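fyi for ur records
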Amino acid sequence: MTGDEVYGQSPHLRAKLERRQVGYVLAVASSHQITTGAGSAGPIR
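which gave:
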């Protein structure tokens, strides 16, 4: 699944996709912090 920044802002959507084991690529703002299985990543500067 792919999605733009609007969908990328939704932690609930990411959680649902992960629970269903659906691969995804979602755009996020460069100031958006995300957490993955590998850890957290802060804003890109």
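The helical segments are 5-8, 11-19. thats all i got for now
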